[in-house]
């Protein structure tokens, strides 16, 4: 398939799927292979949060305190210098729009014990496994490397004392031990979101439309296509799931997960967008 031809010269391997949101038809390459989610997991956290708000189980206006103990470093509250109180809803927005890892942890903490882990079964996603939010994954990495805590892990990573090979040997890079899914499961989940309760779907659409840290699949998309997405990455992986809405009413869910071996991010991300275009053309034949 043309998808393989796009990535092989780049030293990369893609796992991809596209699904028509109206009739569920789909095609892909390696679409049933397990892939790591990284920040794509935030889409599941957002869905469960928004559903619980709809059910009256979570007050979206409730203030949540963000302290130094919560901060993981990075964008949004994860990189705040001072403690803050932020409404639960706004934390969910930060999680989705700027991929705020601390916000993801705090929102996940509002969902209740087992809510995230049990979500794939409730949704019928048989090849999806959710272990936890970003902090849970980092804690697993620290244990794998025999490092005492996340503060020590941050120092070790900053110092370069851990090699890329050692990191890639930890659970965060292993689909059998971390948050994982398949491209086909992800397009099924996107179809569920888009065809789900109108109020919930509208808010998930709004959050994914405002993503500031992705856009990998849409770089070569026609200007008239409306794009909604959630990306994720680790050294050695570039991921994105998206919905493209065409002017003629077609709506496609697209998932592209790429395992990379070189420092050629720009080329890989352009290939991801080319793959998305190729899949839409193939589905329309």
From TrEMBL:
Keyword Nucleus: no
Ranges where the Beta-lactamase class A catalytic domain occurs: 17-258
UniProt keyword annotations, A-Z: Hydrolase
Database matches in Gene3D superfamilies: DD-peptidase/beta-lactamase superfamily
One GO BP annotation of this record: response to antibiotic
Any one GO molecular function term: beta-lactamase activity
SUPFAM superfamilies hit by this protein: beta-lactamase/transpeptidase-like
Keyword Isomerase: no
Pfam (any one): Beta-lactamase2
PANTHER family: BETA-LACTAMASE (PTHR35333), BETA-LACTAMASE-TYPE TRANSPEPTIDASE FOLD CONTAINING PROTEIN (PTHR35333:SF3)
Protein name per UniProt: Serine hydrolase
Record organism: Glycomyces paridis
């Amino acid at each position: 398939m043309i998808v393989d031809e796009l990535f092989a010269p780049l030293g990369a391997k893609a796992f991809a799927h596209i699904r028509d949101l109206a009739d569920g038809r789909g095609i892909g390459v390696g679409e049933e292979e397990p892939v790591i989610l990284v920040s794509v997991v935030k889409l599941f956290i957002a869905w469960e949060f928004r559903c619980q708000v709809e059910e009256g189980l979570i007050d979206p206006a409730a203030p949540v305190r963000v302290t130094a103990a919560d901060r993981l470093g990075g964008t949004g509250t994860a990189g705040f210098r001072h403690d803050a109180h932020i409404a639960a809803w706004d934390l969910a927005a930060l999680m989705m729009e700027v991929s705020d890892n601390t916000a993801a942890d705090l929102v996940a903490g509002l969902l209740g014990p087992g809510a995230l882990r049990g979500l794939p079964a409730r949704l019928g996603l048989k090849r999806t496994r959710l272990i936890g939010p970003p902090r849970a994954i980092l804690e697993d990495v620290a244990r794998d490397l025999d490092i005492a805590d996340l503060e020590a892990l941050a120092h070790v990573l900053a110092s370069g004392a851990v090699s890329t090979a050692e990191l890639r040997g930890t659970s965060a890079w292993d689909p059998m031990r971390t948050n994982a899914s398949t491209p086909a499961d992800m397009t099924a989940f996107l179809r569920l979101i888009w065809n789900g309760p109108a109020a919930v779907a509208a808010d998930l659409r709004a959050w994914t439309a405002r993503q500031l840290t992705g856009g990998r699949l849409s770089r070569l998309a026609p200007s008239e296509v409306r794009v909604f997405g959630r990306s994720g990455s680790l050294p050695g992986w570039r991921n994105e799931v998206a919905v493209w809405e065409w002017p003629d009413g077609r709506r496609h869910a697209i998932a592209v997960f790429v395992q990379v071996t070189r420092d050629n991010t720009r080329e890989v991300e352009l290939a991801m967008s080319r793959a998305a275009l190729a899949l839409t053309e193939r589905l329309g034949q």
